[in-house]
Amino acid sequence: xxxxxxxxxxxxxxxxxxxxxxxxxxxxxxxxxxxxxxxxxxxxxxxxxxxxxxxxxxxxxxxxxxxxxxxxxxxxxxxxxxxxxxxxxxxxxxxxxxxxxxxxxxxxxxxxxxxxxxxxxxxxxxxxxxxxxxxxxxxxxxxxxxxxxxxxxxxxxxxxxxxxxxxxxxxxxxxxxxxxxxxxxxxxxxxxxxxxxxxxxxxxxxxxxxxxxxxxxxxxxxxxxxxxxxxxxxxxxxxxxxxxxxxxxxxxxxxxxxxxxxxxxxxxxxxxxxxxxxxxxxxxxxxxxxxxxx
Length: 294
Description:
- This protein has 12 helices and 8 strands.
- By secondary structure, it is α/β, with parallel strands linked by helices.
- The protein has one domain: Alpha-Beta Barrel (TIM Barrel).
- An 8-stranded parallel barrel has the order 1-2-3-4-5-6-7-8, surrounded by 5 helices.
- Strand 2 (40-43), helix 2 (55-69) and strand 3 (74-78) form a beta-alpha-beta unit.
- Helix 4 (114-127) packs parallel to helix 6 and helix 11 (252-260) packs across helix 12.
- The longest helix has 17 residues, at 228-244.
- It is globular.
- Homotetramer; dimer of dimers.
- Keywords: Amino-acid biosynthesis, Cytoplasm, Diaminopimelate biosynthesis, Lyase, Lysine biosynthesis, Schiff base.
């Protein structure tokens, strides 16, 4: 299926206190995104740290997010797992809690075959009625959805697209060619947002838009309008900030940046740690150079 959403999605931070989720901060983050034109919010993706949250916390965050977003943007819940049964269970729960769509990362650590990937996504998509976006991020998972495999997955009803973060533009171009007209391509790599949009990507699912939602949406709209030179100039201006958001593993720098902006993200949960002081200073400098008051 195509056109589940077009535009910009933010892979949302989950703000924490010492005792749990900071729901006041989460509501402010949701409003910050919607006020700046973000089209979809990804809740409990990698940036949201679901691996270190209890099942009760995840369910409450999903309920709260659906209530606060209130139809003003698409709601996408992360539901992937390295167990097909667990991924199916999480997907069914997410649909019941009001998700508009799902993002399902490939199985990680136990490293299935390409045929295993097809059957994994077939099981998830067959268990729900809402759109499912595949997530390819082999640097984290150890598994790479190859273009020929994604072409097979795209034939499955309610597979809506792939969030592509393999980092290989040659592979991404081949995937785009094979799935065109069957499902959509989304950028999952902020450094490659512009080239992926330029080859026909339907949108992007971004970490940096936690910090720069307005500019990220503006860049997307410039591409849609065919104003590629202006889009490239804006992307070039954003790149120093994007680079600083990945000096350490995501979401460590993104949370630090959000705290600098007064969004009260708190600290990451262990085993992730607070951003190193030197990286914190270079991040602050990049944000100030971009024109942000931090």
